[in-house]
C-alpha cells in the first residue's frame, strides 16, 4: 500500500492483501477517517509540526519586537516577543532538550 500523505479531511479507504504462512491470501479494506487538521502548534514558529530549538532560536532573534495576535512567537499574548516567551516555549518542546 502506498502511503497517502494527503491532509485533506475525509474518509480514505486502504486496500491490503494479507497472506498467511500457507500462501492463502485475502484482500481487506480499511476505512480511515482523516479529521480536519488542528490549528498551528503553540510556539511552532517555523510550522514544522514540532517545537524545537529552531523555534526557540527564532523567538530569541525576534525578541523585543511587536507581535500580531496569534503570533506563535508571542506565547503569552502580550503583544511583544520577549525572552519570557522563549522560556515558556522551552517548556513546550516536543523532544527532550528541545532536540529537533
Ligand atoms: Ca510575549
Explained architecture:
The chain has a domain at 53-98. Helices cover 17% and strands 24% of the residues. It has two helices and four strands; from the N terminus they run ββαββα. The protein has a two-stranded antiparallel ribbon. It has a two-stranded antiparallel sheet with strand order 3-4. The structure holds calcium ion. Residues 74, 76, 78, 80-82, 85 line the site of calcium ion.
Work out the helix count: 2
Radius of gyration: 21 Å
Bound molecules: calcium ion
- Report, as a whole number of angstroms, the end-to-end distance: 29 Å
Arrangement of strands in the largest sheet: 1-2
Mean pLDDT: 87
Q: Name the helix and strand elements from N-terminus to C-terminus, one letter apiece.
A: EEHEEH
Profile the largest sheet: 2 strands, antiparallel
The parts where pLDDT drops under 50 for at least 5 residues are none
Which percent bin holds the helix content?
A: 10-25%
Strand pairing plus helix content: what structural class?
alpha+beta
Spatial shape: elongated
**How large a portion of the residues is in β-strands, by DSSP E?**
15-25%
Question: How many β-strand runs?
Answer: 4
Could you give the topology of this structure?
Elements: E1 10-19, E2 25-34, H1 53-61, E3 65-66, E4 80-81, H2 83-90
Antiparallel strand pairs: 1-2, 3-4
Helix pairs in contact: 1-2
The chain binds calcium ion.
Core attributes:
alpha+beta; two-stranded antiparallel sheet; two-stranded antiparallel ribbon; 2 helices; 24% strand; binds calcium ion
